[in-house]
Amino acid sequence: QVQLVDSGGGLVQAGGSLRLSCAASGGTFSKYTMGWFRQAPGQEREFVAAISWNGDSTYYADSVKGRFTISRDNAKNTVYLQMNSLKPEDTAVYYCAGREGVISTRRYEFPYWGQGTQVTVSS
């Protein structure tokens, strides 16, 4: 069973950038599809981006396409989310998630979750 630890969140001005990281341990990271989700106060957790086990396939929510990039380094057991041109509406707690099997955008299909990292974008 894999354990996930998110990091890299913080406070940034609109238009700025952040890179989130998610370090995995306790499992065979290269077997896992990885995803990023986010949850703003009072809202449901929503899909942001996902990447296949080998990095060949990526999916993005429409709201982040062209601004966010998901990537992974299987040698370092780490997945990243590069966030550029940040907007105040990107403010949320960001969670990485993992699952065995094909790439997915559905949060209920991911059994493994990080603890979350806060991203706050000021206007």
Structural description of this entry:
- It is a single chain.
- This protein has 123 residues and is mostly beta strands.
- The strands form 2 sheets. Strands 2, 4, 5, 6, 9, 10 and 11 form a 7-stranded mixed sheet that branches.
- It has no helices and 11 strands.
- The N and C termini lie far apart (40 Å).
- It has strands at residues 3-7, 10-13, 18-25, 32-39, 46-51, 58-60, 68-73, 78-83, 92-100, 112-113, 117-122.
- The chain is 0% helix and 51% strand.
- 34% of the residues are buried.
What would a concise description of this structure say?
The chain is built from no helices and 11 strands. The protein is mostly beta strands and 123 residues long.
- Total beta strands: 11
Helical amount: under 10%
Using the alpha-carbon principal axes, give the shape. Answer: globular
**Helix and strand element order:** EEEEEEEEEEE
Q: Which structural traits does this protein have?
A:
mainly beta, globular, 0% helix, 123 residues, 7-stranded mixed beta sheet, single chain
